[in-house]
Write a structure and sequence with these properties.
By secondary structure, the chain is of the alpha+beta class. It contains nine helices and five strands; from the N terminus they run αααααααββββαβα.
Amino acid sequence: MSSIAERLTRSYCLFHWLQVKPIPDQIRSSIAYSTLEQELLALKVKPEDLAAVGSDVTDNFEESRLAFMVRYSGLTWSTCSIFCDAIENNSWLQNGTPLLVQFTGVDASGQIGLPKVALGDFMFLKPSNVWIDNNRVVSFTVRWNKHETRRMERFIRLASARHGLEATVSNIAQSEKFIAAIKATVGAQ
């Protein structure tokens, strides 16, 4: 089973090739991109060849890209949309509202938390403060646009369910402000 991030990257790249649109460097440097490129070259298909086929696909680039990604990746519209937003609004991943993701319940093997290898499903979100216990991910933090947190919650829950787990997503912006205030107070003494 390929990771969610790999499937998203592959569908994103194919669509951009079909539409003769540039692919951002952060995607070009991914393993999924280079693997797809090698597969196409092994078939003697060049990205330019794909572009010639799909240059007149749509009037609305974003909607068509999402529709293509949903069909090609087999993932939901919301998941594909979050992936595109993470690329096009990279500042959300750096300066957005901090969200704590916690994995609860046990998977099919009876273990608590997300298998460490499944963290790859979330890597395009640039998780930080990853807590790993016994090769299982217990929690991590991501940042996202405060007006889009419900969409992020749905994505996290769906991706967790793929591994037989439940997840909770909590806005921890107040916690960060509280900690910063304590540090400022302690530093002032």
